[in-house]
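Progress against Task 2.4 (sequence-to-structure conversion) is shown through the following example record, which the project officer requested during the mid-term review.
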Amino acid sequence: MIVNGHPVISMKVSGGAHQRTTFHSRFSQLRSWFSTPLHIVLAICSLLLIVPVIVFIVQNGRNVPYGDEWVNSVQMALKTVEGRLTLADIVRQNFDHRVAISNLFIVFLTLTTHWNLHVSFFIIVGISFVNLLLLLALLRRSDARAVTLALVLFSALVFSLRQTDLWIWSILAATPILLFCLLAILLWLNHSPVRWRTIIGVAVMVALMTFSAIQGMALWLLLLLMLWAKGYRRAHLLFWIGGALFTLILFSLGYDFSLLGANENGNSAGLALNPGRLIGYVLTYLGSPFVAERAESIGIAALVGIFGVVMMTVNVIYLWRLRISAENLTIWLTLAAFGVSAALLSGLGRAHVFPEPVPTQPLLSRYVIYANTFWFAFVALAALAARSPITKQTAQSGKRMLRANIVVAAVLIPLHGLANIQSFLRPANISTEIAECMQTFPTSRNVFCPRQTYIIGISLEDVLDSIDRMAVHRLALFADQPPPFTELIEVRNSDQEIIEQGPETISYQYYQFNPQYETVVLRQYAPSRLEHRLTLPATEQTITLVSGVFIGSADSDATEDGADGARFQLFARTNDDTVLLFDTVVMPSVVADPLPFSVDLSAYAGQTISLVFVTDERENTIGDRTRWLDPIITAAADTSADD
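Structure tokens generated for the chain above:
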């Protein structure tokens, strides 16, 4: 349409005072769109892009907590089933962030599926599909014709395999939900007239996003321009600013600011303010969806980031000159600015280590979904520019813009495809063997398996305790298994008193029998007596102490000359009596698997007793490195009866 000699793009579906489109008319429009063979082909291609994601999840998704999940996610699931969950837990700080949405998602999965992580992976795919529909709805409100150009590209970004951790790491489940909230906010503001109900609802959603990821804070500022373009003025904007201040005050209560900016090596917390590093970090971050997660990709990622910023700026200027409505333009500028602000916020905390000693930091797969918000806007603006009406006045510039966008697409699409292929071939975070080994931990006590699932800085003792409690409540990897026990007492966590001490201090330590088997042992070198005082559960189930005994290998390659073995005894002592529960002699061996044993403690149910562990030499103490395999007490139903 030409007004006063200038082209004007009308990209808003409206009529009268915001006429409501009926479901029937929407269905008719959709049916009309699919009446074109090209549109059917594009829709099929978009859906086919989901298939590699499904295959990747099936091949690499494990129902086992990984990395940071041991710090927060596991505890949320345990508190939910144990009835200890509070509001403070929902909004608790997890490193830089508060993670309310993530915690609520864990609570939901725990109550409905025993926190089955496989289910969470496919829920993430479903939410991502909804996000694709929201993107298309936003673009359709700007210009329905542009949907044809953007459909497959949007789908390729939404279901990018470059986001490997998103698909197989449940801790990131909140990220696509945050994107859903952002897109819903943009669509809501674009669709609704200026009214208090809308701005209050949007403020509540942004507050929830703020308490779910630190990137949500940026929206308080970014949405100001869109609110102004929509027609919100003084009273509304003062409410918005007040809501932002109130939310930030609540956010800061009890917040540990010393964690801000802690780098990947766990030292030198603080904000990184070097402009050169920050700019390099942001550009590399923005280019991350198009390169593999490796050091040699930094240069290409930075160039892609520069390309994207420059080309988006050119498209915005071109569309502005075509008199695109400010409201429609700010939708995509807000989305792009969110991606840039996410890169900047990450850079403020992590640019300490970029490019040395962690050059891949801005390329981490968990950041790709945030970088993609920039490229969603890029694709939308390029599609709007390509589909804009060309007049005599804009013929030359329109053709130049079309050619420029085609050239950029010709470069970026192959890069994106290659990055996706490389990501698809990436090994799983947890191998099948480790996942299977983790399921047997409650009985095998093999510490080697849990060690492969968590990161440095997390207490292994806490991880082992969490695994046992997860087994009791059938969470995650134990969701489809009968519980190996219903209650468990780790003897090492009970009150203990050293009655008599051997030549070395009595302690619990990790002991490696072979490269694939490591466990916690009670090191109690003979002669020695150690007493543990504990209260057994009041239950009618069978209460059993399970352990094993062995003599650790010497530093030499052969049994020490003269070693004659050692004696192991276990007593149960009450105020009235002392009973011998276990008594055996172990002969020394260089490579010795533990001699397993179990004793029934059901007679002491509900009582406070003392377990006395005794090791004694025979004729001498040569080589008597006596050890007990991680003693635990379990309560479980008696399964020894015949069917």
